[in-house]
Specification:
Number of helices: 12
Helix content: over 70%
Domain ABC transmembrane type-1: 83-273
Number of domains: 2
Subcellular location: Cell inner membrane; Cell membrane
Keywords: Cell inner membrane, Cell membrane, Membrane, Transmembrane, Transmembrane helix, Transport
Protein name: ABC transporter permease
Order of helices and strands: HHHHHHHHHHHH
CATH class of the largest domain: Mainly Alpha
Family: Belongs to the binding-protein-dependent transport system permease family.
CATH superfamily of the largest domain: MetI-like
Shape: globular
């Protein structure tokens, strides 16, 4: 005798049970997407509105008043010196941080002593302090040197104090992840001097951290306002300080057009950091290189 078992009802119940289990996960995923999109809109919409304000004839009338590049031309005519000044400060800051930060990061990574950890904490201290406090300290100590105080190098000094930790930490993070000691010992056994080892062994292996630190230093230097506002003079007004002045004393269209100029300078750097996969510690660039 053949026995036929009908499993249709059981299969249907199982399918409903599986669907019931997956439903909360779908709701959670949808909720996460909704929150993410809402946050993106909250952050991006004001930026878009600011950009549009710099391209409209009249901000209060909106796009209906027409589009124009008049405000961009006016900003460039009045403030192009601030643009080039910011680039000069960023370039000088980068050179100084490369010369001092790369050897410092390498030395801190090689040393395992408590003194090295103490020095590393001291280097990171300016990040924890407000920019105004760091600027005030520089003015108190070096403000008496009039020529230095009125020069562009005073702002560069402040930017180096603020950005040097990013270079040191980026280089130190990569140096700690690579067995440099073994590589250097191998090069030394072949007769390479310290300078030859540093140039041919150390620097190529530290390249991801150096690139990460360089991008971070330039980006932070161009956008730094608090410290620069305290240190600048009428002859050393950088891009962020000029941006604050335009919003405080001129039409909102000019201030928004100035914002567009600021975006044009900083966005390529931010995109480069994302495209190259680097961050302030240099770990993403290191993983990409190994991959």
């Amino acid at each position: 005798m053949n026995v036929i078992v009908d499993t249709t009802a059981g299969n249907g119940h199982g399918a409903r049970r599986i669907a019931h289990l997956f439903m909360p996960r779908r709701l959670i995923a949808l909720g996460q997407w909704a929150v993410t999109l809402a946050l993106c809109a909250f952050l991006i919409v004001p930026v878009v509105m600011s950009v549009m304000a710099g391209l409209t004839v009249n901000y209060f009338r909106g796009v209906s008043s027409g589009l124009t590049v008049r405000w961009l031309v006016e900003v460039w005519t009045q403030y192009h010196a601030s643009v080039f000044l910011s680039l000069e400060v960023a370039a000088a800051t980068l050179v100084v941080t490369l010369i001092t930060g790369v050897p410092a990061g390498y030395a801190l990574a090689r040393s395992k002593t408590r003194a090295a950890r103490f020095v590393e904490e001291l280097l990171v201290l300016p990040i924890a302090l407000p920019g105004l406090a760091s600027a005030l300290a520089l003015i108190v100590v070096y403000g008496g040197f009039t020529a230095f105080r009125m020069s562009l190098w005073f702002i560069v000094a402040g930017h180096v104090v603020f950005t040097l930790p990013f270079m040191v930490r980026a280089v130190a993070a990569v140096a700690a992840s690579v067995d440099l000691r073994t590589l250097e010992e191998g090069a030394a056994s072949l007769g390479a001097t310290f300078l030859e080892r540093f140039r041919t062994v150390v620097l190529p292996n530290l390249r991801p951290g150096i690139l990460a630190g360089a991008l971070a230093v330039v980006t932070l230097s161009i956008g730094e306002f608090n410290l620069t506002w305290m240190l600048h003079t009428p002859d050393t007004k950088t891009l962020p300080v000029g941006l604050a002045d335009t919003y405080a004393s001129l039409r909102i269209e000019i201030g928004s057009a100035y914002t567009i100029v600021f975006f044009v300078m900083t966005m390529p750097l931010l995109v480069a950091m994302q495209w190259l996969g680097v961050d302030a510690t240099g770990q993403r660039a290191l993983r990409r290189k190994r991959g």
